[in-house]
Amino acid sequence: MNEQETGVKRISVSLPQDVYRELSNLVNARGFENRSQAVSEMINSSLIEHYKQRGSELMAGTITLFYDGRPGLLQQLAEIERAYIDEVISSHHVLLEEDHTMEVLLVQGPARRLKMISDKLITCKGVKSGRLVMMSNIMPPIHPRNE
Q1: Phi-psi region of 74 (alpha: psi -120 to 50; beta: other; left: phi over 0)
Q2: At what angle do helices 35-54 and 111-122 cross, to 10 degrees?
Q3: What count of other Cβ atoms lies within 10 Å of the Cβ of residue 117?
Q4: Parallel, antiparallel or unpaired: strands 100-110 and 88-96
Q5: Residue 55's Cα: distance from chain center in Å?
Q6: pLDDT at site 42
Q7: May I ask the CATH architecture of the domain 58-135?
Q8: By percentage, how much of the chain surpasses pLDDT 90?
Q9: What is the pTM of this model?
Q10: What's the start-to-end Cα distance of the chain, in Å?
Q11: Of 62, 139, 59, 142, nearest to 102 (Cα)?
């Protein structure tokens, strides 16, 4: 199979010796098959960051929250999630030790809006930590209501 059949394009990159050595160390440490795979992952990460900066790019992702059992927090989080029901596709709760919960939300929408939803959730009192991870690949369309 040639490059055109697989959709793979070949480029050449020149690196300073110390950067090349660190790239090789990274490949070994993270278990990449080769340097090309590592460089491709880095470029994809950079592209995702670029799309996040643009703000209007449609993206899919997850919002992961870790929070305590503070009274009223679950209701507050649920109200935010309901307010953005077009973007919040699903949520999954896992009960942790010592009255803590991990919640993972599957989200899709414009990057700027996902960031705003994430910020609203993460800044709720009782949320210990949270993180938004986005990807430029999106989910297939969900069936419209009027069919």
Answers
A1: alpha
A2: 80
A3: 21
A4: antiparallel
A5: 14
A6: 85
A7: 2-Layer Sandwich (3.30)
A8: 55
A9: 0.69
A10: 42
A11: 62
pLDDT in tens, 62-118: 999 999 999 999 999 999 999 999 999 999 999 999 999 999 999 999 999 999 999
- Half-sphere exposure in the Cβ direction for 63 (13 Å, CA): 28
- Cα separation, 93 vs 102, whole angstroms: 6
- DSSP structure string for the chain: --HHHHT---------HHHHHHHHHHHHHHT-SSHHHHHHHHHHHHHHHHHHHH--SEEEEEEEEEE---TTHHHHHHHHHHHTTTTEEEEEEEEETTTEEEEEEEEEEEHHHHHHHHHHHHTSTTEEEEEEEEES--PPPPPPTT-
